[in-house]
Prior knowledge:
Blueprint: E1 8-14, E2 20-26, E3 28-29, E4 36-41, H1 45-52, E5 55-61, E6 73-80, H2 83-104, E7 112-121
Antiparallel strand pairs: 1-2, 1-5, 3-4, 4-7, 5-6, 6-7
Amino acid sequence: MISDKEKYINLSTQKKDSTLVNTPVWFAQDEDKNSFYVFSHGEAGKVKRIRNDSDVILCGTNRNGTEKLTKNYEAKGYEVIDEDGKLSGLNAMRSKYGALGKTMTKGPIENRSIIKITELIK
């Protein structure tokens, strides 16, 4: 199982032609420990792909995504739209990554997206 102790997950999203795109990302678990948040630029490819197809594959990885540290898990991802949900995601990232998380999430959130990954299939 992927735990919050992992620093990075490999987020695999699907293009319209069904090609998988792997992206190593920072993540944080939400309060109930059943979902993950991913922070991204609002126009990033992974955000656009999740808007088109919510099916994702996750696995623990290293910083550049070259090592697979856990098995693959299928899940659903969606972009968080409401302000409370965005703040929950930002706070989870800031809490997990400390000063680095605060720096990484600093500034206005209008051009940024919070992706919530749910329905992790064990």
